[in-house]
Design brief:
4-stranded antiparallel β-sheet, 188 residues, alpha+beta, SH3 type barrels, 5-stranded antiparallel β-sheet
């Protein structure tokens, strides 16, 4: 089984159909004897946490929409079989209609992390840890920017942009500000 040298390639797919394409290719491998030509088929995902009505909602999101990574030895029959999978547009190449270009070793290592999708999981864990450290109505201190050292009250939180709106007392008047999560800290 192991005498063919497989490389990693990127397939352009119809956005939103990455997992369907993956299952179709796996089906093609099983039913048409491409086990020697095609190895792993990956759709890199990341775990995202949103707040909805005060509750954390865990969701998986495709990290590269419209792309599927495939480990394969590309010979004519395998290329033809992969290109005919529903939802596949083409292999990523350096010019239109050109030959598929294999991924560089650094790109593959980054994608696979330390032998799996741990790299993506590390990213998502970091995201979880700094997800929602603040609440509306909470008093905080500005630690970066022109209003460094001022205290303010959180008025609104925009989770997707990772920003929040707060009002700061300047010369006895409430002044609205929009800052990143990293520009403020809790007052203990």
């Amino acid at each position: 089984m192991g005498n063919l040298k497989r490389k990693w390639y990127v397939l352009k797919t119809i956005s939103g159909q990455e997992n369907k394409v993956k299952s179709y290719i796996e089906h093609e491998i099983k039913n048409n004897g491409f086990q020697e030509h095609i190895g792993k088929v990956l759709v890199p995902i990341e775990k995202v946490i949103h707040m909805r009505k005060g509750k954390k909602i865990h969701r998986e999101k495709v990290h590269y929409p419209g792309y599927v990574m495939i480990e394969a030895f590309l010979e004519l029959k395998a290329v033809h079989a992969i290109k005919n999978v529903p939802g596949v547009i083409n292999f990523l190449s350096d010019k239109k209609g050109g030959d598929a270009v294999p991924m560089r070793k650094e790109e593959v290592d980054k994608m696979l992390g330390l032998g799996g999708n741990e790299n993506m999981d590390k990213l998502s864990q970091h995201y979880v840890n700094i997800n929602l450290p603040f609440l509306v109505g909470e008093t905080i201190k500005v630690i970066d920017g022109p209003f460094n050292g001022f205290n303010g009250t959180i008025e609104k939180i925009n989770q997707e942009k990772r920003k929040l709106e707060l009002s700061v007392l300047i010369f006895g008047r409430k002044t609205p500000l929009e800052l990143n999560f990293t520009q403020i800290e809790k007052i203990l």
